[in-house]
Design goal:
This protein is of the alpha/beta class. 38% of the residues lie in helices and 14% in strands. Strands 1, 2, 3, 4, 5, 6, 7 and 8 form an eight-stranded mixed beta sheet that branches. The protein is globular.
Length: 285
């Protein structure tokens, strides 16, 4: 089985619609794909309706968190999307996205960049607006050569000249909320140091003690040494190890299935989940 547990659609900051994403996943030879848009489950229904035969969809979301001043992302799988407390927290995070993106746009203009809110909103379309859409605007304007370059200290990374903080959930609370909604939690790209400061291993250990299920090890932002270190950490803490592409369509260079999760780990994730179940494809439109 080929299993990719981290992807994004136009429901957040990807460039493929949810329907296009599942068709691309099937064409890439995947057996299982997780749709994990940022702080939203809005794309799930479209993905399920278009799900090709032979492909299974894992519903999920990537939750925006912050601990001790460090931003981190928590992948949440197979939770009940209507559970009130988790739904309210996701809406709180999403509601802060527009004013934050507007503030980043204003900062860029103060820096002499001719970006406009209308441009950022056009790029975001119906998705949950965020930094990647602002980054794409910088690419359109020729200010930077790539989205990755926009996420540097010079521009949009934590502490960058145009960075603006947003509401982010305490990860200990996020783990508790996801567990209460029947879901499973995995720390996304914990060693992605080029994105900014990373969470200390001591904090990861505390999260594991609080119920964190796993860490994403095989990821494009982790070099060989980082993966080896994270595998050792996972073994020490009794955490599951996942691998995923973090696919965003044309917004990033990674492709679906570039990194995958072991079938035994996937089986354990589905065994632990009680809020929702993987959806087998029935040959969608």
């Amino acid at each position: 089985m080929r299993i990719d547990l981290h992807s994004h659609s136009t429901a957040s900051d990807g460039t493929d619609t949810p329907a296009e994403l599942v068709r691309t996943a099937a064409a890439a030879g995947l057996d299982v794909v997780a749709l994990t848009d940022h702080d939203t489950t809005r794309g799930h229904a479209e993905a399920i309706a278009a799900l090709p035969e032979g492909l299974t969809l894992v519903t999920g979301a990537e939750l925006s968190c912050r601990v001790d001043g460090v931003s981190m992302h928590l992948l949440a799988y197979l939770f009940d999307p209507e559970e009130p407390a988790l739904l309210a927290e996701r809406e709180l995070v999403r509601d802060d996205r527009v004013p934050r993106a507007r503030a980043m746009t204003a900062k860029l203009r103060d820096l002499g960049v001719p970006v406009t809110w209308e441009q950022v909103a056009r790029i975001a379309g119906d998705g949950s607006v965020g930094r990647p859409h602002v980054a794409s605007a910088l690419v359109e304007l020729g200010v930077v050569a790539s989205v990755d370059e926009a996420f540097s200290g010079a521009w949009l990374s934590d502490g960058g000249r145009a960075y603006v903080p947003k509401h982010e959930t305490d990860p200990f609370e996020a783990v508790r909320l996801v567990k209460a909604a029947g879901g499973v939690t995995v720390f996304a790209h914990p060693g992605a140091s080029k994105r900014g400061r990373t969470v200390p291993e001591a904090t990861v250990a505390k999260l594991a003690a609080a119920g964190l299920d796993g860490i994403e090890v095989d990821h494009m932002d982790h070099d060989t040494g980082t993966r080896a270190r994270l595998r050792g950490l996972a073994a020490d803490l009794g955490l599951l190890v996942t691998g995923s592409s973090d696919y965003h369509g044309s917004r990033k260079t990674c492709v679906l299935g570039e990194y995958t999760t072991d079938p035994e780990v996937y089986g354990e994730i589905t065994r632990r989940a009680t809020g929702a179940f993987p959806v087998p494809g029935a040959g969608g439109a």
